[in-house]
Amino acid sequence: MTQQTLVRGEHLSVALALASAGVPVLPLRAGKVPFGNCPDCTGNACGGRPNMKTPGPCTCPAPCHGWAAATANPDVLHSPAWGRAWRQAAAVAYHPGGAGLTVVDLDNADAIAWARTALPATRTVATTRGEHWIYRGAMASANGVRPGVDVKSLMSYARWLGPGTGPLAALPDAVRALVVRDPSPVRPVRVSVAVPAGGGRCPHRSPVFLERGIAMAEQRITAASSAVHATVFAAFLAVLSTHGRCGCLTDAHVQRLFAAAGTKGESPRHCADAWANALDRLGL
Fold it and tell me: For residue 146, which of 16, 51, 207, 261 sits 20 to 30 Å off, Cα-Cα?
């Protein structure tokens, strides 16, 4: 038996130990990234879990859909489809939100220094470049909440690097406040245009047509695994190119798009800038 095989067996052993404690786990490939979706789920053709707003598991038998693949079911972890992934795994990850936890990922010494002055002490785990501070309680996840600081909980995963040291503290308001969205209202897009010739009704005012457009834009954003800024801008541009001139968009629609972008770590300022750039591109 090779050393590589031993390491892979250790990954499964660690995963099973975590699962027995109720912690949902998943294998990671080299580069600390999840395994790609199976052929049936490629491009989320199955309507995969990351397109939904609730943090639940994926039902595919393969370890699909990133964080949504995480499971504490030993039968799934031992299944043939997962066995193939474990044989190629480079690390073990877990879904903090699924275990009722939040990880504050501090990526460098400056971020750690900030946490020591701004956050209550809790369990810490050393990482390659910094530390994970783990709190008891789940919340929304967001990247880049401060320089070198990400928050990983619901709809996210964190690499398992050991149990850490120190007791778990309750999730403080100071961490929740890091991902609070800007409550200022978004200016509605209402551009008056003439009624179509013949007195017909604007087709974009159909609730079904509009809802489908907004839902597709949300799906496009939340499914992005890279180039998030570009994907958000393209989604905003697509919505505005179809609906920006007929006056059917409201604050609620815009906030839904901003919220989808927020799940990928986009700040309210980034969202507002992308929206303004899309308006400018279309001359609205």
Answer: 51
Residue 157 and residue 148: Cα distance in Å, rounded?
A: 17
Could you read off the pLDDT of 62-90 as tens digits, one per residue? Answer: 898 888 889 999 999 999 989 889 999 99
Pairwise CA distance, residues 264 & 80, whole Å: 31
What is d(CA 103, CA 160) in angstroms, rounded to the nearest whole number? 11
**Angle of CA points 90, 7, 63, to nearest 5°:** 45
- Reference 120, options 167, 159, 152; nearest CA is 167
Residues forming beta bridges with residue 131, ordered by sequence position: 106, 126
pTM exceeds 0.85 for this model:
no
Bridge partners (DSSP) listed for residue 104: 133, 151
DSSP-derived letter for residue 246 is: T
Bridge-partner residues for 150, per DSSP? 105
Q: Select from 37, 96, 34 the least CA-distant residue to 61.
A: 37
User: What is the distance between the alpha carbons of residues 44 and 21, in angstroms, rounded to a whole number?
Assistant: 30
Q: What is the pLDDT of residues 88-111, one digit of tens each?
A: 999 999 999 889 999 999 999 999
